[in-house]
Amino acid sequence: MTMDIGAFEARETILECPKDQKIFSSRQLRSLAPDKCTYGFDIIEYIGNELFVHCRNEREIREALNTRNIFISEREIGYLGRKFVVYLALAHGESREKLVQSMAKRGGYILHVDGTCEGDSPHLFCGMDGVSEWILDNIKIPSEKKELLIPFFRRIRNHYGDPVALVHDMGIGILRAVEEVFPGLPDYICHFHFLRDVGKDLLLDDYQLIIACLRKHNVRTSLRQKARYLEKKIDLDSEAIFDFKAVLKKAERQPSLLEAIPPLTTYALIHWIFESPSQGYGFPFDRPHLEFYGRLKTVHGLLQNISGVHLRDKAKDNRSFVQLNKLLEEVLSDKELNNAASSMCCRSHYPTGYCPQ
Question: What's the pLDDT score for residue 312?
Fold first, then answer.
């Protein structure tokens, strides 16, 4: 069975040399599927890509294959996924000579090494050429200890020669293994890891305090409950739903835009609070809880501009504004939270608009 042909029955003529009894099988059939196997290389490749590149599960892959008239059980798909990894490793090993030649034309390779996990979980430790971004080798190890990394570094050195330089984090095990296997070679600390460690030293205490304070006030749950309540009261398909980001930019000059439909505006404001941007690098580069706190302040300021001191005088019309304003005031009156946010903003040069004045 293959992706292009579908299910078929192969009849193979095998030839044997009468002199040395050497066997000659069909090259065409071997190019379609592994020897004595049912499923073709293209199916194995498809399953591997879906599992490991597109992150689909066995059930989703089975359903996708069914639409192509290829019927495979979920258990078999899991097996073929593991088979894909083995074939990929074999193909990588067979390509090693070409990799070495190609990297030599570029002037050599820069060895970047790092593990995918931290803590007590197993590490998938990887070596990559920083110029071509090709993976050179990897190994699964329980921790990044020197004695576990030395054989891995020696294997890379035997296969690819000495690198032009090395780049890695500040792990003690990596440093000591590099000193033993690659003595005298230029050795650099990764800028990303360096800044991450410095950022944690500078910001982590304040950030953990911000998280604890926000949890204490249970503000996220309260906002979600308010949004669900408002969702039942408003028409989400109404033409009154407009680009709220544009409205936020104009709100200081035209507060009437926000005052026009209090329930809809409150609903949109709550959703905006939760839409914190992210670079995808994790803490300390991404600070979603501090961003969340900053958006609470921004919305609170908008509510003050909308109704000012008369907010409570219009409680009947602006009930949703009043309730949201009250919720935010309870959180933003927390001195411990404000001090932690202010300290973190000063240390990280965060936009001052998000920090207590």
Answer: 52
Give the distance, in angstroms, between the CA of residue 179 and the centroid of all CA atoms in the same chain: 32
Query: Could you tell me the maximum CA-CA distance found in the chain, to the nearest angstrom?
Result: 106
**Residue found under tokens 């095998």:** 14
3-class SS of residue 165? strand
CA distance 69 to 92: 31
Give per-residue burial for 96-118: e unless 16+ CB within 10 Å, then b.
eeebeeebeeeebbbbbbbbeee
- Cα separation, 163 vs 106, in Å, equals 12
**Integer Cα distance of 190 and 128 in angstroms:** 13
Q: Distance between CA atoms of 176 and 58, rounded to whole angstroms?
A: 42
DSSP state of 261: S
Segment 199-236, tens digit of pLDDT: 888 999 999 999 999 999 999 999 999 988 888 777 65
pLDDT at residue 307 above 80? no
Name residues whose C-beta falls within 8 Å of residue 252's C-beta, 6 or more positions apart in sequence: 305
Nearest alpha-carbon partner for 124 in 142, 112, 106:
142
Domains of the chain from N-terminus onward? 15-94 (no CATH), 97-189 (3.30.420.10), 194-354 (no CATH)
Beta-bridge partner residues of 347? none
Q: What is the pTM assigned to this prediction?
A: 0.64
Q: Check if the beta carbon of residue 200 is closer than 8 Å to that of residue 283.
A: yes
Which tokens belong to 271?
A: 């959703």
